[in-house]
Amino acid sequence: MRILAVLWTVCLVRLCSAGSLCCFRGSKTDDDEVTDQAEQESSNEVSTENLRAVPPQPTEPKEEDATEAPQSVPSEGYPQELDAQSAGHVDPTPISLDLASPDKDKSQSFDYYFGTNAVQLIVPKKGVSVSKLMNGTENIYTLSSEETFQYAKVYLNKDGKPELALITLGTSSGHSQKAYSKNGSKWEPCTDSNAKMNGLRTPTGAKLCTSIDLSLETSTDNCTIFEVDLLGVKTRQLYPKLGYLATKVMDANKELWECSKGSNACLSCLIYKHGNNEVLEILVVDNDSLGYNYFVKNDKEWKNVTKEDFLKRLSDMKKGIAIPPPKEPSQEFPNPTTSTLVPHEEPTTPSQSAVPPSEQPGAKKKASQPYIIDLNSTNGTFLNDEKIEPSRYYELREKDVLKFGHSSREYVLMHDGPIDA
């Protein structure tokens, strides 16, 4: 009986609890919270079983997570855009570059004087693709799909406005250069850039003598210095400023070049560097002729090399090829590393008439002792890279080197037999 009474009491209590839930559904008790948690757990258990049976469709938040997951994280300290540029990626959208006012975000520009010509070097920044070169609203040159813009040297007039553009382009076969000059409101191909440069020279009075110091890295009061990547090679360029005449080239306290007479001077020094390899080109002007001196840095010292060695090393730098130590200059010819005179362009030389006296009537000579005389030729005659005075006889000796005018061809005197006394 007692057992039956207890069971009856329990049943009554459960019925009262059920009625309480029905009557006070708006309120919550501790039991309600426990029930809710139990329902949630039960619901979770059901969901788990459903996941095991049939995979659910992803919800929207999970789709967003899936979209964001593949995004790469930029390298430490570098914006993602810079990483793309450093990897050699090119901006897919080519731009029009205004040479009169270059975009500083898209290009670098450097102002200097080449002799008495005001020049601006303009180089696109890494990853920037250029499709057209402009001068304000004037079209200078439109690149083809097979050309890439490397850099431009812009020659300015007295008002600082572009008048001549020397453009270097990359092509499938290497590099090409084009010259365009302003004619009114149009730009046209220039067939005589030297004449155009001469017309843009800045008049100057007396010049102060100075020296160019290769050990300096920043510009001074008398020298413009800057560094830029050209054709894949880091290049440091040094130019005397307007009103100065560079008569010496120094590397700290060591002299590399000095003018031999009042008519020649240094126009520029270009140092090309790739890794631990450095080569140097010194450009010298002597009246209307240009001469180049070539050097390579070996054991922290500059040593003379031939033009062929210089060009080979520069080409290897562009290709990233390891460069061997420089060879000692050849001793076969006198002054083998003296500047090699070459012009901007190869002119015809019909008016050059420097001839050996053996071809002149009445000249007194010995057959074994040849001479040469310059008959007031237009571009002069050079003996061992020194310009000879006109209307004077010069005795020639074995292994002497002759050049005529602006021609780059050299003639070396060799005796076939023994020299007579």
TrEMBL record:
The keyword Signal applies. Residues 28-102, 321-371 are annotated as: Disordered. Residues 30-39 have a biased composition (Acidic residues). Keywords: Signal. InterPro entries: Cell_Proc_Reg/RNA_Proc, DUF529, FHA_dom, SMAD_FHA_dom_sf. Transmembrane segments: none annotated. This is Signal peptide-containing protein. Residues 40-50, 332-341 have a biased composition (Polar residues). It holds the Pfam family FHA. Residues 369-405 form the FHA domain. Residues 1-18 form the signal peptide. It comes from Theileria equi strain WA.
